[in-house]
Each structure stands twice: as C-alpha cells, then as structure tokens.
Amino acid sequence: MTSTIGPDGPHVFSFAPNGDAFLLDGKPFQIRSGELHPARIPVEYWRHRIQMTKAMGMNTIALYVMWNYHETSEGVFDFQTDNRDIEAFIRLCQAENMWVLFRPGPYVCAEWDLGGIPSYLLKHADIRLRTDFASDPRYMRAVERYIDEFVPRVRPLMAENGGPILMIQIENEFGSFDSNSVYLEEIRQLWIRGGIHGPFYTEDGLVQLRQNRSTVMGGAIALSNGNAAQIEAVRNAFPFVPAMAGEVYPGWLTHWGDRAFQGTSVDLSGTLDEFMRKELSFNLYVIHGGTSFGFYAGANVDADTGEYQPDITSYDYAAPISEQGVATASYMKYRSIMARYLSTPLPDVPAPVATISVMDGDSVRRLMPRRYASLWDNLPAALPLADTVHPQPFEMYGQAFGFVLYRKKLERYAGGALDIGDVHDYATVCIADQYAGAVSRANVPRHLALPLRVVQRERLALPGASSTRQAGAMLEILVEGMGRVNYGHAMIDRKGLIDPVVYKNVSGASERLKNWEVVLLPMDSAFIENLRPVCSNPNKPGIFFVATLSIDAVGDVYLDMTEWIKGVVWVNGRNLGRYWNIGPQMRLYCPGPWLKEGDNTVLIFDLHQTEAKPVSLASTLS
Question: Would you name the residues annotated as active-site residues?
Fold first, then answer.
C-alpha cells in the first residue's frame, strides 16, 4: 500500500512527470480524504470530527473556507473568534497526523450563502462575480484583499514549510460557470505573489472540464462526482496531469419543501473498493456536513423551472458521520472496506459526544415557551426617507442577513390587492396592524399555504377597510432574506423587495408606491441581546417567545419545532438557524458546548404564530 508518512516536518508534495501519480517526498501517495467545513462545526468538536475522519481510514482532510464567514463586512476580517480560526483547525489536522487539501475559493458553492462570496459586492447594481480584473475590477480587488489576508496565514502551513497542506484549490467548479482562463490565472498569481507557488489544483465535472478546459498551469485536476472510470478518462484527455476524484458524494443536499431528506439511499461501497484496489486518490464530499447555523444556508434555482429552492439548516447530507458526529451504518461499512487495504490497523472509532436525555419518565420532555416580546415594540429607527423613495434590496442598505421592514401609509385605504412582484424571499404583510397574508418565493404546499394565505407569484388580496383603517392605513411588509443562490448563473441574488410594489384599490386603480419607511432588522446578536420584553399587540404576528431548558449536565440535543410555522431559534444567544413547517427538517441541532448546566434560554421568533406551542426535545435529526 502507499506511504503512511505523516505531516511531521517539511515535505515535498509533487506530481509524477507523466501525471500518473501524486508524489510525497518522491514516492507515490494516495490521497484518502474526507471533507469537513470548520464553519459548520462548533470549535469544541473540531478534533472529534477530525479523529472520526481518521478512524474511517482517511489520511487527509479537505476543507472549504467560506470567504463571507471571515470578511463579515467590507475590509473587516475575522480569523480568530469562535470557529473562524482556520489556522488552528489546520494545526489540529496536523496534530492528528492528517494532511490537508485547502479549498479557499474565492467561490466555493458548498450550499452556502452566495457560494461564500460576500454580499456587500451586490451593492453595485452592475457587479459581475467570478470574473477577471478587466471584466470587473471591483470583484477582483475584493478577491485580492481576501487572498492577501490569507497568504501569511497559509504560507507556514504548506507541506514544504512543515505544515500539512498538500495542495490549494483555485476557485471551484468554474467550468460549470464560464470559460475564462485569465480569471483562474489571476487567482493563481495572487498566491504566487505572496510566496506560495503551489501545488495547485482545480475541481470540475468531467463534461464541464472538457468543454471549458478550466484547469490552471501546472495544476492537478479533481473531478466532481468522480469515479475510477472518469479519472481514467481525464488521464487520457490530459495525459501529463494527475487526477483524483475530488468530490465523491456519499449523500446529497436537501431543500425546504423536499418530500424527504435526500441522499439516504446512496451506497459508495463499490466505488470506494475500486479506489482502494487501484490506489486512486479521492475525497468524500462530505464525510461530515455539520450545520449551516445562523443565516448561512444557501439556495439553488432550478434550471428548468426557475423555481427558487432554499437549503435547509441541517447539512447532515446523509454523510457517514451524522450532523451530530455519530458514526452511521455507512461509516462502519466504509471503514471496513478501507481497513481491508491498509497495512496498519485503523484507530478505534472515537466515543460519541455526550447527549441530553430527552425523556421525562416515559414521556418525551417538552419545553413550554411563553410570549416574550413583539418585533413591533422593538423596531429600530427607520432610514431617512430620502434614501427610500423606492424600496431597495438589503444589500443597497448595507445589510447582509435577516429581515427588513418596508412601511408605507396608504391614504383613503378601502381594501384591494397588492402586487409585490419578485419578493426575495418571504414576506408577511400587515395592513393597519391586521395580518393580510404572506408572499413566498419558494413553493409552499397548498395545504400549508391556505390557512396562512400564502401566495406565490400572484397578487395578495387585502382585507376590506373598516372605519378605523380608512384614514391612512399603514401597510407593513416584513421581508425575510433566505439563502442567496450559491450555484449557476442566478447568483446575483439580492434580498428584500426587488420590484416596485403596486397597490390596486377596490375600484381597479393602480398606484406604484413610493416614499417608504425602511427599518433594518439583521437579527444579529446585539439586537437579540437588547430585546425589550414588551408585547402591546399579542394578535399581530411577529412575536418572540422564550422558554427555559434546565439541565444537570451539558450535551447535544435537538429542538423539535413541529408545532411551529416558520422562524428562527436562538439558544443562549446562539442562532441555531431556520425552521419551516414545509419540512422535511423539523428539528434544529443544538451543540452541547452552546449550553451550560442549569437554566438555558431558548428564544423563538415566528413569522406567523401568535400563541405558544410546545417544543419537544429529540436526540436525532429525524
């Protein structure tokens, strides 16, 4: 079998002159990699997930870096706090005797908001993403700043300098987006300018690679959904370039509204056996997915129908290591396949992390929240009217995530209809403090849409006027920005009200509404921490609820939101992500390190619910 040498000092990672092998210190080396995303794993669990990967038979960790998780506002970088310390993660890999494939983008896809690209770039109405300096210098100057920030952190971690990084990937699946060798070379040169000369590689599907020749000078090729036959095909087409299966999918991603979690029937046994038998290099994408906490889950647009498909919060992916870090049946099956081909015994599978008991005697333990605060009693000041003649997307106001409230007083209101156009992505509408309905960009099943009066791509009927509303009724449109599209040519995906709002009164006259009040609601930690416990109108949707989770010992747990409609959950100020009753995800993962012994605060914001419902504790995703 190939060398088992570990990243214990300076090494030379290179390619065989004829391209038929990767070489470590001049000897053939098989990359056996599992993908982990530090941004999706609590920092306290990093070592556990690395050890789980190693115990399945891997010798390498592949990792995406999500640019927008680190440049949180323009020119402001964070590589230190919480799970953003990428250098520490890579050092942990090295401490566990694991090599690293480094995938920093600038675009990564990854079912992550805007594929990892910072949304502040979308404030430019004519911005072009994933293109060269000549085509859009604003984009490439931002890329340059990002890579320049990274270079001094990465350079000491390269194998030649005693670190564990074998290769750096240039961009990601660019052949599925465009054909622009200048752009890829400009990115490569940014690393070289910083003193990192490779090795480099690219990642693409076989068809796209053939069509757009999206490789870089002197770089290896990794194949999306690759297998042994495709590696052979690439070797024939690019005879002097080493190739590997860069993304081998053990499961698949899931969108809100899918009938079930995707990828659960995948079996890679034959594929893995062939890789091992032929000593071909590969990377399982993902060996452990984790969770898209907060507002970071991305989205797709169906190429045939144009349907917007936001991703669920969980990134379990039906991966061998589950969202909460448990070795699944497929993990044990794949581990046994790997072990048959390796000359040394695999380490024991790490013990699972602690969990909270979800039972109270013979019954499932349930939390009973209470109404805590109304959004409407906690609104920040509106933006100056001069800035809001026409409603603009979030990005034009400098907001990346969360919600925005658009308000407009309708004089002589007497009912009618509202055409919001292409809302991005979910809006609840109130008129004179009365809920009128909602507009969803994503499809909502009819049986769930009707009770809530949720419409999609059609006019929303407004209730008739009463004497209390006729003299200037306030129209309020609260828009939730869900995941930005992370793949394909629909990535310029701004959030909020995209089109003009048209009000049609009962007599049929239409008016394009102008001069809005706009209230920014990023729902960040500062906003949550400063909520005032006031709820002057408990019947108006947009309410925060609070519950107390009391525990004697810290451990992982899931919160079952089956009895709730649509919203966000925070535990001790940590954003667990979105829930939505269209499923298939009904439970949100809460990592043990985010809890403490004693009382823990569970805060729920629901866009529709005005009465509290129970929240059951659960031990698994489903």
Answer: 173, 247
